[in-house]
Specification:
This protein has a seven-stranded mixed sheet, sandwiched between helices. The protein is globular. Helix content is 40%, strand content 18%. The chain has helices at residues 16-26, 43-52, 69-79, 99-108, 125-140, 157-163, 171-178, 199-211, and strands at 4-10, 32-37, 58-62, 84-87, 113-118, 150-153, 182-187. It is built from eight helices and seven strands. Helix 3 packs across helix 6.
Length: 214
């Protein structure tokens, strides 16, 4: 198995230990784990947990201000050393056990980016309808659909590193503008009962894709 880096932007995550243990169970071959704490109010609790985690391949970095999910993820990518870099959210709505699906995808197809896509999103009707409308517009713009559960080849790391501080930065638009070697695979998805994203935050996140100019 190639060397894997797993990048997770963290903001008010329930437990760092749960995150780390889930990844180590799913990827037993000593992956590098990079946690980017996006200036979370729960930093004091994270510090206590980090003292109890002795995994040598774990790296933790806290930003001095809230920079947003895309920039925090890109910062983690710029720090990664693995041949392949996997990104995922801290709520484990995409379970860590689905990492093997991303690894299988890149082993079967000649691609630089792979996305795990939920086969049946079980969110509220509002979020489902918003997602489908968003993806419809993206397809009309000739971009493939995407998710926060990704796998990238390390050759894309310099591209991300050079751009992640740009205004209105959107990670997926940067990646999809840079290469057409993109694949998708269905993955299991476990949405939470409530989401941290209000309608307003979802709208703002969507606007990033359309405003950003790589």
């Amino acid at each position: 198995m190639p060397v894997i880096s797993v990048v997770i932007p963290v903001y008010n995550a329930a437990s760092l230990q749960t995150l780390v243990n889930a990844i180590l169970t799913a990827v037993p071959d000593h992956p590098e784990i990079i946690l980017i704490d996006d200036c979370s109010p729960q930093h004091a609790g994270y510090a206590d947990e980090l003292q109890q985690l002795s995994y040598p391949q774990l790296r933790y970095f806290r930003t001095d201000r809230n920079i947003g999910q895309d920039k925090a993820t890109a910062l983690g990518i710029s720090m990664a050393n693995g041949e392949y870099i996997i990104t995922m959210d801290d709520d484990l709505e995409f379970p860590a056990t689905e990492i093997h699906q991303l690894l299988r995808l890149v082993s079967q197809q000649k691609i630089l980016i792979g996305y795990g896509m939920p086969t049946r999103p079980k969110n509220s009707w509002f979020r489902v309808s918003t997602r489908y409308l968003y993806y419809f517009v993206i397809n009309r713009m000739k971009y493939p659909v995407f998710s926060s559960f990704r796998i990238l080849h390390h050759s894309l790391r310099p591209v991300v590193s050079a751009a992640h501080e740009q205004a209105h930065f959107c990670l997926d638009k940067l990646l999809l503008t840079h290469t057409s070697q993109v694949g998708h695979t269905p993955v299991r998805y476990h949405p939470k009962d409530s989401s941290r994203y209000s309608a307003y935050r979802l709208f703002r996140k969507s606007l990033l894709f359309f405003r950003y100019r790589p």
